[in-house]
Design goal:
Layout (H helix, E strand, L loop, with lengths): L2 H4 L4 H11 L1 H26 L20 H6 L1
């Protein structure tokens, strides 16, 4: 019995088979998935820390005194 028939099931076996046949594609796919994860993490951090609130903006913005964004501006 060959190893390809015994280990032909499961996601890990599929990954190992792909790694042996196409190592460049498997490595670049892994790096792409990690990159996409880092992009989503950076965008989430940007919006969590109110990254759109810049000190110097291109357009003038007037805030009312009871607007909740005023507290973030005072910091």
């Amino acid at each position: 019995m060959s190893t390809s028939t015994t280990a032909s099931r499961g996601l890990v076996a599929l990954y190992k088979k792909g790694w042996h046949q196409f190592p460049e594609i498997m490595a670049s796919s892994f790096m792409g998935i990690v990159g996409i994860g880092l992009i989503f993490s950076a965008v989430k951090t940007y919006y969590d820390k109110d990254g759109d609130n810049r000190m110097y903006k291109d357009r003038y913005t007037v805030y009312r005194h009871d607007d909740p964004r005023v507290e973030k501006l005072k910091k």
